[in-house]
Each structure stands twice: as structure tokens, then as C-alpha cells.
Design brief:
Layout lengths: L13 H5 L12 H8 L19 H7 L23 E3 L18 H7 L5 E4 L2 E5 L7 E5 L5 E4 L5 E5 L5 E5 L2 E6 L1 E4 L4 E5 L6 E12 L3 E5 L6 E11 L2 E3 L5 E12 L10 E3 L2 E14 L4 E3 L2 E6 L2 E5 L4 E3 L3 E4 L2 E3 L6 E3 L2 E6 L2 E3 L12 E3 L7 E6 L2 E4 L4 E3 L5 E5 L2 E4 L4 E5 L2 E4 L5 H7 L4 E2 L80
């Protein structure tokens, strides 16, 4: 059957009616997500595992992920501290003819970068700065010195804006760079541009800032991958982030919001054409001219994240990966597409909006284009679509699905795997017989945030897992809050508070296969 060959749905479900609204930036940072940030994303159940530098501890991620990430390649978020000596200072009340000292600061950030030596620190005091690298230049700053730190004075608000005809914010070809706390506002073309030049940039930290008013927030020249080992932490961007033609490797995005409104049709909000080793934690993607997250990289993990309002696919993983504790709201095409490799969907929600009534596509698609064998595991998740379920290519034989809820509003197929088809009216028995146990078909009764309502069959319907992760739903509620984990990305805390089920819940029943971490396809 063709991916778009479904018949038109005839009615709306209760969940579909409730989710009829336009998503805005407030969907990225509700109170519960702020709670997670404030608590430094403490995610070890029953213990207080401190986050390192405000990031989720590597040990917690390593314990949870099916994909073996090289966590040592990701930069750490350094302490936000001014060195005791040697720093260069910038102030709106300064003078570029000064010495750059605390008592005689420069007036422009560009002057300070010109004056800085490698391994130096530039501290920018509160204010708004109109910058141009040189007279009649299209760039505000050019950073080519290694081991350089450009930082806002801790606790102060700093904004950099274009002077004259400047259209590019910060152009980087450097290694071991920290750019922190300096907002970029109004650089019409690109906020941060990595220029590969004679070498790749490497080990770069961009943190605690906002990029707005650009067509592209973070981008590369169309040359071989321009940056490896990149950390984006606590960044809010209103335009796309991408790696050009790549390859780029070892990017970690944490507490990042991408509201992709800078470029029209054809632009993915977050795009990687080639690369390896990507970790997206607590990332929110709102809107895109094309896909929300589209990556052709190998070894990709999406954790504690939200993707909503993409025009095409919400998440597209060309080489498999992990999607954990994530809310995916479909665009005009399938919410989730995976082309090859190994893939696991854990405690996640695939939802929809009522604007899509009359439009048909699958909730998840596995290797439709390439038709390659895959390894697929779906646990504790909600797959809810007004008109279409899961499509798995016939060549794939390693499929495990357990404790997951399937729903279609029009009674159409909930799963197609070669000649094996399961309709909504069949219930979950046929899925349980072939792929796993304790799956169900029902309306999940999702509210406007796609959170299970109090009477939802998704509450307490999950299975405890052999590791304490994820220990919170994306709503901040600890798992397990009732008799068992809730299905989907949220833990509601609505169910009866009884001790979690014992180790017997981890036993695999006959026919209930599980793909182990590190297995080869």
C-alpha cells in the first residue's frame, strides 16, 4: 500500500478535537520544563544525582541509551567565572582607545577580540552593542583565536546587534572557544557562522543566550563539515540550526529551543546531512518549513524533547537512534520516519492536531525508501493518529513492541508489516501475538498538551525497566508515580500510589523479543 494511499477519515476523536490549536513558543517552556532546568535535570530515581555544569550527567545517559554514544567527545559547560587576572573588559561606557582593563574597558566587542590573545577571556558588561568587524564589513565579529572565552559579566544582560550593513553575527574558525551569555539580535542572514577555512573548528561551547532576527541561527559554509565537538546549552533560537553538507560530529544540544520561522518552505529546523554522535536533550522544536529534526548522522539520541508544528515530518532519523521521553506532534506527513539501522522508542508520545483531518499518513514509517532490514523496539509509548498507524518494511524481522497504546480516529490500520496488517477493530491481540505483550488499542484521552487525562487508559499501563531511566516524564513528575509507569512522554501522577512492581515485570514473555544495547544489526 502506498504511504499516502489511505482513505479520508470520516470523523474526529475526542483527543483530536481537544488538540485543535496553534503551537507557540510557550509550548516549549511550560512550568514543568523550567522545573527540570532549575533542578539541573536530576534524573536518577530515588537519588539526587547532580548534573555536571548544568547538564544531565553522562553516566545517566550512558545507562539509558540503546545507542552507544561517545560521551567523552562532547564539550563540558565550564564554570561561569571571571579569571582573577588577565581578562579584557568591554563596557558601553568604555573607549576603544583604552587598555581593556576593568577600569579602562573597551567600547566594542570587536576591539576586544582584535586585542585578545589566544587563551584569553573577554568579559562584556551589561548593555547593547552595535558591532562591525571592520569598516564596511558584513560581519560583526570574526573569531580565529583558539582557547578564547567571550562571556557576559555573570548576572548581566548583554545584546549584540549589527552596525551599518552587517548581516552576519559571529563568524568562527577556532578551537576550544566559549561564547556565553551574549544575545545576538537582528543579524539578518546568520547569527553564528562556522567557516571551515583551512581547518575545522572544534570543541566549541555556545551557551546561555538568544539568537533572534536571523534567517539561520547557526550554520556552516557550504564546505566540508565546519565544526566538531559542539555544545549548545541554554540557547533559544528563532531560526534554523544546521551543519551544511557536513560531516559534523559530536554535537550536544541541551535546553535548546528552535522556533524555525526565519526561512520558508524547504528548511528543516535542525538538519544534519552527514556526521556521527549527536545528543539532543530537553530540546524543543517549534515549526519548520520542512522537517523538525532531520539527521543523516549515525548514533543519534533524542531525549526529554518536544517537536511540534513541522510542515513535513516532525522527526526523521536516516540511520536509526533512540527517541526517549519525547513528545512528537505530527506535521503534514508522518511524525516519525526512520530509514535504517537500530531504533528504540521509549516512553514517548506521537500525537496529532485536528488541522490534519482529511489528510492521511502513517504515524511511524520504517525504511520505506531504502527497504533495509532494521531492528525496532517500542516500549511504553503512545501512537495516536487520526488516520494511520505504523508502517514497517517487509524486510525487517527484528521488531519488539510492548506496553504501548495505538489509536486511530477512523478505525484504519494501526500496523502494516509486509502482508501482515492490523486494523484498529482487530484490537491489540494480533500485535501482542507477534511482537510483544500488554499493548492496547484505545483513545488515549489526551488533553491540549497531549498529556493523558485523568481517566486515560495510558495511566499506569507501562512496564518498569531494568534501569532507573527516564526517572521523570517531560512534565517533571517522577516515574513511577503510581502502580507502574504511564505510557507516553508524561508521567501524570494520577494513578494510585502503590510501590512499583517488582522484578517479575522485567521478565520477557514467550515471543516478547528484546534488542540488547550494542547488538549489531
Amino acid at each position: 500500500m502506498d504511504m499516502r494511499g489511505h482513505r479520508v477519515p470520516s470523523r474526529q476523536s475526542q483527543s483530536e478535537i481537544r488538540t485543535s490549536r496553534r503551537f507557540t513558543l510557550s509550548d516549549c517552556l511550560p512550568t514543568e520544563i523550567n522545573l527540570l532546568i532549575i533542578s539541573a535535570l536530576i534524573i536518577s530515581a530515588g537519588s539526587a544525582s547532580p548534573a555536571v555544569g548544568g547538564l544531565v550527567p553522562d553516566a545517566e545517559i550512558a545507562a539509558a541509551t540503546f545507542i552507544d554514544l561517545d560521551l567523552n567527545r562532547f564539550p563540558n559547560l565550564p564554570p561561569n567565572e571571571i579569571p582573577a587576572t588577565g581578562a579584557i573588559f568591554v563596557s558601553p561606557q568604555g573607549d576603544d582607545a583604552g587598555t581593556g582593563s576593568r577600569l579602562s574597558p573597551f567600547k566594542t566587542i570587536a576591539r576586544a577580540v582584535h586585542a585578545a590573545s589566544s587563551a584569553g577571556t573577554i568579559v562584556v558588561r551589561e548593555g547593547s552593542y552595535r558591532e562591525a568587524w571592520e569598516a564596511d564589513d558584513f560581519r560583526a565579529l570574526v573569531v580565529t583565536k583558539d582557547h578564547l572565552t567571550l562571556m557576559a559579566y555573570p548576572g548581566e544582560s548583554v545584546t549584540m546587534k549589527p552596525a551599518g550593513g552587517v548581516t552576519y553575527g559571529v563568524v568562527v574558525n577556532a578551537r576550544n572557544l566559549v561564547f556565553r551569555g551574549i544575545d545576538l539580535d537582528g543579524f539578518r542572514k546568520i547569527g553564528v557562522l562556522f567557516d571551515s577555512g583551512a581547518r575545522k573548528s572544534r570543541h566549541v561551547v555556545i551557551a546561555d543566550l538568544e539568537i533572534k532576527g536571523s534567517n539561520e541561527a547557526i550554520a556552516m559554509w557550504e564546505a566540508a563539515g565546519a565544526v566538531d565537538e559542539l555544545l549548545l546549552a541554554n540557547v533559544e533560537a528563532d531560526a534554523i540550526i544546521h551543519c551544511g553538507i557536513g560531516p559534523c560530529s559530536s554535537w550536544r544540544l541541551e535546553n535548546v529551543t528552535i522556533e524555525a520561522k526565519g526561512v520558508g518552505w524547504g528548511a528543516d529546523a535542525f538538519a544534519i546531512e552527514a556526521g556521527d554522535n549527536f545528543l539532543l536533550v530537553n530540546v524543543c522544536v517549534l515549526g519548520a518549513g520542512s522537517d523538525g529534526i532531520d539527521t543523516k548522522a549515525t548514533r543519534v539520541v533524542v531525549l526529554n524533547s518536544r517537536v511540534r508544528g513541522a510542515r513535513n515530518n516532525a522527526v526523521k532519523l536516516w540511520h536509526g537512534g533512540d527517541v526517549i521521553n519525547t513528545l512528537i506532534v505530527r506535521g503534514e506527513e508522518s511524525p516519525l520516519v526512520v530509514e535504517k539501522g537500530r531504533f528504540r522508542l521509549l516512553n514517548s508520545t506521537l500525537g496529532f492536531t485536528s488541522e490534519l483531518v482529511g489528510h492521511r499518513d502513517y504515524s511511524m514509517v520504517f525504511s520505506y525508501d531504502e527497504r533495509l532490514p532494521m531492528q525496532i523496539e517500542v516500549i511504553n509509548s503512545i501512537i495516536s493518529n487520526p488516520s494511520g498507524g505504523v508502517w514497517i518494511n517487509p524486510e525487517t524481522s527484528r521488531v519488539a513492541i510492548r506496553n504501548s497504546l495505538f489509536h486511530t480516529a477512523d478505525g484504519s490500520e494501526i500496523l502494516i508489516h509486509g502482508s501482515f496488517e492490523v486494523s484498529y477493530s482487530d484490537g491489540a491481540d494480533r500485535i501482542n501475538q507477534r511482537y510483544g505483550t500488554r499493548n492496547l488499542t484505545a483513545d488515549p484521552l489526551l488533553d491540549g498538551d497531549l498529556r493523558p487525562a485523568g481517566s486515560s487508559p495510558a495511566i499506569d499501563a507501562g512496564v518498569a525497566l531494568p534501569f532507573d531511566f527516564p526517572a521523570h516524564g517531560i512534565g517533571g513528575m517522577s516515574r513511577i508515580s503510581g502502580a507502574a509507569p504511564d505510557l507516553g512522554a508524561y508521567e501524570t501522577g494520577v494513578g494510585p500510589r502503590r510501590p512499583p512492581r517488582g522484578a517479575h515485570d522485567l521478565d520477557r514473555e514467550p515471543g516478547d523479543t528484546q534488542i540488547e544495547k550494542g547488538e549489531t544489526p
